Give the backbone structure.
Amino acid sequence: MKSSNYNFFIDFPESNQVLAYNSRTASLALLEPKNYKEYLEFEKNSVIAGLDEDFLKKLKIGGFILENDINEHDIITHHLLRNRYKTDTLDLTIATTLNCNLGCVYCFEKDIRSNKKMGDEVKDRIVSIVEEQAGTIKFLSICWYGGEPLLDMTVIRDLSNKFIDICESNKIEYSASIITNGYNLTPDIAAELASLKVTFAQVTIDGPKPIHDVRRPLVGGQPTFDRILNNVEKASEILPITLRINTDDSNKDDMDSLLDLIVARGLGSKVGVYLAQVKNENECYNTNVCMATSAFTEISDNFDKKAHLMGIGSNLYQYPAPTGPYCGADSANSYVIDPEGYLYNCWTEVGDMSKSFGNLVDYSFEGNIGLKLQYMLYEPQQNEECANCKYLPLCMGGCPYERLNNAGDYCAAIKYNLERKIKNYAKYVIEYQKEAKEKVEV
């Protein structure tokens, strides 16, 4: 027997015990000091005789120890490939338009904006993709994207109704979400989206009014904060909304006042919030203003804690779980589609035809197949740093786009906050169990 390469042991003074976590299996346990001492002896000498039989059994079940002939890299690779090439789920990110009504200072789509509409031929081909896979998929996931997707509700209406019909006829589970700047997310539009089975909307607000209006004005420079927040306030009664706050050095100190405003507007229990790290995608922003992932992660964790204490939904108790592919960019049955039918691996590439690997209606377009293969054939164990990293199962090499474009630190945030995440989750579970016990006793 041998110890797993993916074990983490964290002091947990709240109960005078030790938290044991395995990043490959996502197992979490509380160890008595006596048991932890037994484990350390085993790790040092690889002798199981000193382990209590019941304790040994639990260590095996949790993946904390395993047989000597098992290669954990092989297990991780199998998990990656099985999920990368699974055929029961189809994920489509559909940019209804590449046009946008906002002129955000960090927008990576500045140079590809277009008024081109999605034609019937492209829409028909998108529907055909779903129809062709209707006999094999169990889940269809749609994300409405842009530009600003609400600038062309016709596409959302036409395609949603057809998707829903196909899914109902073939007993496919359907889910849809939308990423919008919120400027056109009126109550009527929110109600229509809900009727089209959109179950989640992400809206970006970058801080209180003076900050947001500088960072996210209309294309003509006019302010947007008041209208967006008013829309969120009304639309949140109809549609679940999460507020994304794009964060860098220029607005990181203004988050407390935004949280205060959210509570003051009665939105605390109606929306979720999270910080997103602004990066210099496509050379669109000032790199000197962007934060390193390690610094951003600490700020984000503190923000989540403050939001939770104020009664606002946050990622405070988000549990670190193993991933297969990092995202849709390195998943076989996931496509990003623009209004002209060009196909992309990553949202960040949309509109850049040099990164497209095909077109739904123009069969003469050869596309960048080489880039597609780089996304799909990469295994993080090929990178020596990743291969030796205990966080590997949780991030699988980090952001594929940033890795391929040598965009600095592409490691995921979990590399910098795993211990905090584990402790937070353990406290949550213990408190939940305590409350449940008290209710039973009453």
Remarks:
- The first helix runs from residue 33 to 45.
- The chain has a mean pLDDT of 93.
